[in-house]
Write a structure and sequence with these properties.
Blueprint (H helix, E strand, L loop, with lengths): L14 E5 L7 H20 L4 H24 L1 E6 L2 E6 L5 E6 L3 E7 L2 H6 L1 E8 L7 E7 L1 H16 L13
Antiparallel strand pairs: 1-2, 2-3, 3-4, 5-6, 6-7
């Protein structure tokens, strides 16, 4: 994790799931970067640049794409505890979205055909708040497991149980 980005649970609160969007979820971003690199290299070839210049253009554009994709992915942290859901985004500027678990009314997940092949998807939490305030874990690996973890947490919380589960290593 990036420094200063970890989630700090309150006393008595246990982390059930914590992770970033899966690297597989940003493959489309990487493919777009590759396509842009190829287009720029073709333009450079048309204006008469040599092999070394074209190779360097490809290398720089692909390098930027990989770094930007990695930072975007690592700068997003999804956390489920036995009390709340939390989404942290950003490194310099920070956007934190949080809701209490008892406010979650429905949990569903969606996957496109491409996402299904990669076993990633988006988990959508319907909460008892503004309809405009969407709460979505996007690009998570094995979204059905995330739904199961939230179901366990909300079911046990409704029964008055404390001390749910153990922190998960699945990212």
């Amino acid at each position: 994790m990036l420094a200063g980005m970890s989630f700090t649970p309150s006393p008595g609160e246990q982390i059930i799931f914590q992770g970033h969007p899966s690297w597989r979820s940003i493959l489309a971003f990487y493919l777009k970067g590759l396509l842009i690199a190829i287009v720029i290299a073709l333009v450079a070839k048309l204006v008469g640049q040599g092999f070394f210049a074209i190779f360097m253009i490809l290398l720089v554009v692909l390098g930027f794409t990989v770094v930007i994709g990695f930072v975007r992915r690592m700068a997003t942290i999804y956390t489920i505890t036995n009390r709340r859901l939390n989404i942290k985004r950003g490194i310099v500027a920070r956007d934190i979205q949080e809701t209490r678990l008892e406010r979650v009314q429905n949990v569903s997940y969606s996957q496109t055909a491409f996402e299904r092949m990669l076993n990633v998807g988006s988990v959508d939490f319907d909460t008892a708040s503004d309809a405009e305030n969407t709460f979505v874990f996007s690009g998570v690996a094995n979204p059905q497991e995330v739904v199961t973890q939230v179901d366990k947490a909300t079911s046990a919380g409704a029964a008055g149980s404390h001390g749910l589960g153990h922190p998960s290593d699945s990212y």
